[in-house]
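Re-running the complex after MR caught last week's input typo. The corrected sequence lines follow. Everything else is unchanged.
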Amino acid sequence: MSVAGKDIFDVDSLSRKEILQIFQTTKEFKEVLKRPIKKVPALRGKTVCTLFFEPSTRTRMSFEIAAKRLNADIVSFSASTSSLKKGESFKDTVKTLDAMGVDLYVIRHKEPGSPMMLKRYTDAIIVNAGDGFRAHPTQAILDGYTMWEKFGKLEGLNVVIVGDILHSRVARSNAKLLNKMGANVTFCGPKSMMPLGVENYGLEVSYDVHEAVKNVEVVMGLRMQLERQTGGFFSTLDEYNEFYGITPDIMDLAKNSAIFMHPGPMNRGVEVVSKVADSKGSKVEEQVTNGVATRMALLYLTLGGDNNGNS
Ligand code: CP
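Corrected-run output:
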């Protein structure tokens, strides 16, 4: 099987072998990013368009930098200054962009399923950069890569994901990818922030963070997603921090080699304290660095970069 020509709606559509191929390619591009000239002509002549209908720093910038590092042309669609504001439909907007020769769209939207809807109007490749609380596959791939790089494999790794699971596309995509790769995943958080039917997800569920982190290699904090919450999930942010905030004491319960991860943006003092976020065991900045190399790998492999023969 090959990643070439594939839409990346979620990690479901990627086999174990394909995920390892993405990791290996990411590793090679990480080496390119250490060179004085951090560019290769692998996607010369290809056009990538970012369609972000929700705020983003990491995902949008890393896709844009990744495309530039591969010598692709990159254009950013801005919904607020586009003809959508004059009543043009989404379908006609996509057809207009297609007519300009876009090869691959990177889309983020608050509506779950929006990348699949986009696919109805275009033959270009679609990469999901986050659709509501459904999926964030490229975040899961870069997180998986960060663990693979640190521990050498994902099989048998113990990972606890702590926080607002209910509203988290990162938790859902990470759990799928990590399960597929043989890691043991625990979701931990207040009952009010667990999705209905979580017991059928094929992973452990815990409501006690002190128990859940015991002997794990990876503690992943999640952002408290206030913009998706309708209220009543916890009394106050201070109370949430008291019960579920990741502190040095909690990290001490994990394995000695344990790392802290967070997809960002972080709410310091809510889901994690600065002493952990800025500690030696924190991989938060490494995740961002890996985000560029991972997205280079994804653009390169989906757009069939091998065919250009000039990476
Ligand atoms: N992790 C993540 O998706 O961050 P951004 O919202 O900044 O893209």
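None of the earlier attempt is carried over here. Residues 307-311 have pLDDT under 50 and may be disordered. The longest strand covers residues 125-131.
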